[in-house]
Known about the structure:
The protein has 264 residues and is an alpha/beta fold. The protein has helices at residues 45-53, 75-78, 99-107, 121-132, 151-163, 181-198, 209-214, 233-237, 241-252, 259-263; strands spanning 2-11, 19-29, 34-39, 60-65, 68-69, 82-85, 169-173, 201-205, 218-223, 226-232.
Amino acid sequence: MLEIVNLTKVFNPSTVNEMVALAGVSLSLNEGDYVAVIGGNGAGKSTLLNAIAGVYPPDGGRIEIDGKDVKSLPEHKRAAFLGRVFQDPMMGTAGDMLIEENLALARRRGKFRTLSWSISTAERNEYRELLSGLGLGLEDRLKTKAKLLSGGQRQALTLVMATLRNPKVLLLDEHAAALDPKTAATVMEITDRIVGSHNLTTLMITHNMHDAIKHGNRLIMMHKGTVVVDIRGKEKESLTVPDLLAQFQIASGDSFTDDRALLG
């Protein structure tokens, strides 16, 4: 479903501030793969997601989604088949719009829209059913403005919006990092349910090693713009944090020093 081949990205090339963010990343995700991505600051995690989403045009390499080369597609055209949830719960929703209006916008993403549109009774019933599965009571608050929701409720709503049209690839950029531990755990449980029920191909950045091990069927670690560890299946199920740190050190030749990830 997602094929990345020798992807490179350099910021401020040929200057004293030159930074190699991606140094020939190659990665293949099968349909339904749920991949946690972890690494220290500057490892290239966010740059990778931004390159897939079309925010940063890569300097070289190839990005294919469902067999189609998307490297030259602008960000707004990729939005038709990509879902994305950001770290900031405020970024995924329009605060002054109602919950049902936010969902309606997500439902119409990638389609031709006019200034005249309405939400049908059938559509509203669909939204109630989708939200009831979250267990947060949002199905009874369709007429509530998104800005009145808590951070966790807003992030859960964003997850529903990002997956409403069953995107080919779902990108999660530390989407639970800004939440308190209890709320973050709830959002992660909701994420697992949504990804599993729709068999979504998912790439999730996290700074939390325990979350990286617990969630998904595959884990990759990045270091200096490359993928240095790739663990999946039964090996991932029995993985511990010390095991992961040992594999990282063997593969990279460095010790993992990101305190935020180690303490998470």
